[in-house]
């Protein structure tokens, strides 16, 4: 058995969201770049108002809804490790199979195995989406799209109970992590690897709150985690270099492009630092990185200033909704008109953040409603985790924290196929509930 320390207090989602967005605004203010349009009271009202709705809803649901008290809790053998091991293993296997199929479909679609060809394929698929046509991929791509996120659930649960799972499941976790890295290379992107890092980090945080070591006491696991983060950083650098080569931009050309298209220019102090270090590329890497995390604030300003934005009904930020819409008659016209309007307003292709994307998809009333539901479910997940932190049900709380960390990009279902990832989290919890219902119940001591 693993020696446990005292349980640590869980972070309330309302506090977590506020802290995260204070960080985003703080980064925007101190960053050595200037973005257009600048943050205004109207944009601040949109973002701050939706954050306030989330916070209020999360606080009410976490403190007002009744849940079974720890004194009356029932131990359910079906919720124990020996009952859920096969379920976790099944999710890992599904995720591994889906990732292999995804890699296969991407590799067979490019003429040569290179970063450049992978990035070119990514650009081609993005253009197909903009034109509201079905990307070429076939049944294999569809199956892979639906299956690989199951592995994120499996590795999250496995990390929470790492000391108690058999060596086979530990090996499956490492294999899935390796495949996700290869998947990123094959697709020319980094989002899936970033998602994996986030879920592993959040699982480590919950381990700490359970009184367990932050990272399992295994040199092998620690080495894999360090290599995974180092690989992500190295690959991110390679991606920027490849994209720069594909666009054939020199430093001055890049600055012109960033100014005209992104609406970003470096501050004099950043230019002075790059000159002092004799490293002009520092401007490119700094601007790109900071813009990545803060662009949603400038995009929110474009959204509130735009006229007659179309309601995209979920097709703007939810991949599976857009994919299903493309199969419906007349959808090409609906999606094409919407994307064209967003492109004209210089919104499409940028991160609208959780608040901007909800506004685009559902309008003001719809975004308020969606945010209230999101906050309410987050508060409920927090309350459940606080009452029963040692249960696998805590993964619903982990997903809520994940949704907060990706909110600078999109709402909970938008970033890197997150809607399907949420579906697999839901399926795991439903299976866990069925296992618990079928097991004999005994009163907790």
Describe the structure.
The protein is mainly α. It contains 17 helices and four strands. Helix content is 69%, strand content 2%. The model is unreliable at 68-80 (pLDDT under 50).
Give the SSE layout:
Blueprint lengths: L12 H18 L2 E3 L5 H24 L9 E2 L5 H27 L7 H16 L7 H10 L2 H11 L6 H21 L3 H19 L9 H29 L3 H12 L1 E3 L1 H9 L4 H25 L13 H7 L5 H14 L8 H35 L7 H11 L12 H20 L4 E2 L2
Antiparallel strand pairs: 1-3, 2-4
Helix pairs in contact: 1-2, 1-12, 1-16, 2-12, 2-15, 3-5, 3-6, 3-7, 3-17, 4-9, 6-7, 6-8, 7-8, 7-9, 8-16, 12-15, 15-16
List keywords for this structure.
445 residues; mainly alpha; two-stranded antiparallel ribbon; 2% strand
Order of strands in the sheet with most strands: 1-3
Major sheet, described briefly?
2 strands, antiparallel
* Helical residues, percent: 55-70%
Approximate strand percentage: under 5%
Poorly predicted runs are: 68-80
Alpha-beta classification: mainly alpha
């Amino acid at each position: 058995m693993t020696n446990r320390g005292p349980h640590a207090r869980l972070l309330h989602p309302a506090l977590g969201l506020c802290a995260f967005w204070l960080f985003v605004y703080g980064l925007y203010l101190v960053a050595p770049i200037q973005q257009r349009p600048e943050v205004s009271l109207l944009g601040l009202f949109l973002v701050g108002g939706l954050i306030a709705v989330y916070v209020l809803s999360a606080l009410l649901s976490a403190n007002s809804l009744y849940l079974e008290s720890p004194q009356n809790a029932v131990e359910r053998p079906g919720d124990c490790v020996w009952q859920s091991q096969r379920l976790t293993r099944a999710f890992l296997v599904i995720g591994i199979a889906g990732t292999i199929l995804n890699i296969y479909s991407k590799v067979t679609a490019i003429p040569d195995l290179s970063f450049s060809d992978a990035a070119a394929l990514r650009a081609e698929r993005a253009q197909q989406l903009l034109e509201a046509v079905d990307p070429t991929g076939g049944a294999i791509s569809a199956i892979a799209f639906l299956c690989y996120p199951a592995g994120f659930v499996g590795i999250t649960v496995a990390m929470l109970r790492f000391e108690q799972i058999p060596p086979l499941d530990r090996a499956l976790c490492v294999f899935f992590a390796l495949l996700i890295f290869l998947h990123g290379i094959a697709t020319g992107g980094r989002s899936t690897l970033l998602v994996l890092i986030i879920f592993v980090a959040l699982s480590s945080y919950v381990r700490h709150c359970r009184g367990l070591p932050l990272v399992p006491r295994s040199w092998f696991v620690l080495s894999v985690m360090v290599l995974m983060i180092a690989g992500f950083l190295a690959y991110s650098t390679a991606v920027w270099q490849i994209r720069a080569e594909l666009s054939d931009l020199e430093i001055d050309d890049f600055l012109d492009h960033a100014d005209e298209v992104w609406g970003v220019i470096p501050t004099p102090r950043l230019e002075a630092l790059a000159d002092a270090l004799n490293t002009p590329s520092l401007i490119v890497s700094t601007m790109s990185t900071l813009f990545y995390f803060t662009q949603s604030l400038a995009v929110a300003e474009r959204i509130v200033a735009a006229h007659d934005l179309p309601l995209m009904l979920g097709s703007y930020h939810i991949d599976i909704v857009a994919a299903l819409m493309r199969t419906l008659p007349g959808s090409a016209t609906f999606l094409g008109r919407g994307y064209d309007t967003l492109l004209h307003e210089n919104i499409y292709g940028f991160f609208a953040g959780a608040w901007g994307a909800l506004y685009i998809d559902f309008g003001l009333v719809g975004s308020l409603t969606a945010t209230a539901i999101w906050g309410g479910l987050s508060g409920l997940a927090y309350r459940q985790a606080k009452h029963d932190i040692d249960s696998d049900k805590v993964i619903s709380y982990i997903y809520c924290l994940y949704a907060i960390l990706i909110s600078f990009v999109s709402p909970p279902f938008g970033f890197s196929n997150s809607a399907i990832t949420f579906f697999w989290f839901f399926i795991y919890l439903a299976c866990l509930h069925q296992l618990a219902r079928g097991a004999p119940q005994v009163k907790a001591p």
